[in-house]
Amino acid sequence: MSRKHAFQFLELPRQMPQRIPVELRTSGDWGELYGKFDKADAQYQAGRCLDCGNPYCSWKCPVHNAIPQWLQLVQENRIEEAAALCHTTNPLPEVCGRVCPQDRLCEGSCTLEEFGAVTIGAVEKYIVDTALAKGWRPDLSSVQPTGKRVAVIGAGPAGLSCADVLARSGIQAVVFDRYEQIGGLLQFGIPSFKLDKSVIATRRQVLEGMGVEFRLGVEVGRDVTLQALLEEFDAVFVGTGAYRYTDGGLPGQDLDNVLPALPFLVQNARIVTGGDGWGRPIAGWEDKITLPDLGGKRVVVLGGGDTGMDCVRSAIRLGAAKVTCAYRRDEANMPGSAREVANAREEGVRFLFNRQPLSIEADAEGKLVGVRVAETRLGEPDARGRRNAEIIQGSESLLEADVVIIAFGFSPTLPEWLSAVGVEGQSNGRIVAGGGDRLPYQTTHPKLFAGGDAVRGADLVVTAVAEGRDAAASIAELLHVQAPARAA
Ligand code: FAD
Ligand code: SF4
Question: Which residues form a coiled coil (predicted)?
Answer without folding.
Answer: none
